[in-house]
Design a protein that fits this description.
alpha+beta; four-stranded antiparallel β-sheet; 12 helices; 12 strands
């Protein structure tokens, strides 16, 4: 097996330190979130048969998209596996050096890189954080979350950034729950008191005209983003992303019923990047585009 000599040129520190035995294919998608969590996808690369990664100052979570990888040697001293199954997750804590040697080449993967700041925030909120390497994790909910990340990365969906933020924190929690074989220590629902929930709702209503991010929602009630995301879902039954979408759709309905503004003006006021994004989001939520929905309410006036 040749010594790895080729690097990625992506601009992502967690990826560009990796050495490959052949020129790697550029990553397909990437999203670097405000808290420095990085999400990206790498396509299958059968020509890359050896990969070497030095110890990184971040946790790496890898979802195997397709193809089983039979390894010529274990990934690392702390992870003595000889094969990686498709539709499973691997967790490599910070400081883990890895070497992959696979005759069939690298399979398609989704990476989630978690910096120490996020780990520290999680530990402060939950009292524990498992940093043991693991491979072939086949937890159903965790896989569903990674599959959603995979789909969102490939699409230009409304509020994509907020959705990826929520999914990233959810994955961190799901990995930790699986590694501990139990739910996180603290009860997230206790953190979302009625007063905090009212403040979150008020914050969202006041800021629907601009990008609403997970960190700002959490800061409005004095919680970390990871703790807030879990507490909000535990209390309301939906994710912060879903709640923001619901709030935007509700405002669109009110504007349609009580104003004569154009659809493009309504879209801008409700925080949508374009009129088409607003129309598609509205249609998904109600089953009808705005004009048809308005007629269904008994209003015969055409939307300007």
């Amino acid at each position: 097996m040749s010594v790895p000599a080729f690097r990625h040129e992506s601009g992502l520190p967690g990826l560009d330190h990796v050495l490959c035995s052949a020129p790697p294919v550029p990553h397909r998608h990437a999203s670097v979130l405000d808290d420095a969590v990085t999400v990206f996808e790498l396509p299958a690369q059968p020509h890359v048969q050896e990969v070497s990664a030095p110890p990184l100052d971040l946790d790496v979570m890898i979802y195997m998209l397709d193809g089983m990888m039979a390894l010529a040697r274990p990934l690392s001293d702390g992870l003595p596996v000889r094969s990686l199954r498709p539709r499973t997750v691997m967790f490599l804590p910070a400081g883990t050096a890895t070497t992959w040697q696979a005759a069939q080449g690298q399979a398609g993967v989704v990476h989630l890189h978690v910096p120490r700041a996020v780990r520290d925030t999680w530990q402060n909120g939950n009292g524990t954080y498992c940093a043991c390497p693991a491979a072939n994790i086949d937890d159903r909910d965790l896989i569903r979350s990674f599959e959603t990340i995979h789909r969102v990365l490939a699409q230009d969906v409304p509020f994509r950034r907020l959705l990826l933020q929520g999914l990233s924190y959810m994955v961190v929690g799901q990995v930790q729950a699986r590694l501990h074989s139990a739910q996180p220590v603290s009860s997230p629902s206790r953190a979302m008191t009625p007063g905090r929930l009212r403040r979150v709702r008020a914050y969202v209503e006041e800021n629907l005209g601009r990008e609403v991010c997970l960190e700002d929602m959490a800061a409005s009630v004095g919680l970390s983003a990871s703790h807030f995301a879990r507490a909000f879902r535990a209390e309301t039954g939906i994710s912060p992303y879903a709640y923001v979408v619901q709030a935007r759709v509700a405002r669109v309905k009110a504007e349609l019923l009580h104003s004569r503004r154009t659809l493009s003006e309504i879209a801008l006021d409700c925080g949508f990047a374009t009129q088409s994004h607003m129309t598609e989001t509205f249609r998904r939520a109600t089953g009808l585009p705005p004009a048809r929905w308005l007629r269904a309410q008994g209003r015969n006036v055409e939307v300007p």
